[in-house]
Known about the structure:
Number of strands: 6
Strand content: 5-15%
Radius of gyration: 58 Å
Oligomer: single chain
Structural class: alpha+beta
Order of helices and strands: HHHHHEEEEEE
Distance between the termini: 177 Å
Number of helices: 5
Shape: rod-shaped
Strand order of the largest sheet: 1-4-5
Helix content: 55-70%
Amino acid sequence: MSTIIQNRKAWKMSKEKNGQPEKEKKSRAEAAEEALKAALEPAPEAEEAAEGQQEASPENPLEKQLEEAKAKTAEYLAMAQRVQADFENYRKRNESVRADAYAEGKKDVAALMLPVLDNLERAVEAAAESPNDALKSGVELVLKQMTEIYQKMDVTAIDRAGEKFDPNLENAVLQGTEDEGEPGTVCQVLQKGYKMGERILRHAMVKVVPE
């Protein structure tokens, strides 16, 4: 009987010894499986970053298109400003050229009409000795109208008898004597000159006392 009891105790102890490695093996396998799962499953931070990236990725093309649109807008604005500046410069140049051309044309017309004015003045002098008052009045009226037109065009006569000779305004064609005036002065105006503003239309033809 005692032998049977001892055999049972020995079998039980042997069974406990044999079962302990199996438990250890099972616990090791479970630990390895959990570690594998943990390695395969993404971390919460990684999931949040991936979700944020997925949410932001659709906005990236829109932001890129917005930046491109802003760049195009700035480019077109700069181009429009350049075109506007070029047009403004062209307009100013055109106005300046047109004004110069108009002034030059007016000067040429006024210069071409000076012989007519000279003849009207001679006609008035001749009509002064005529008994025909109607002729005299008519010629004087025409001369008055011509003079008024020249005044509106800012045309003035150069008639400087007794003043210092100025080669910028006068051409000396004759030489006077000492008893005709002060040396270097204009003693007689043979033909009046004219100027439009500060632009000379015709120099006066004068007689000058030598110095």
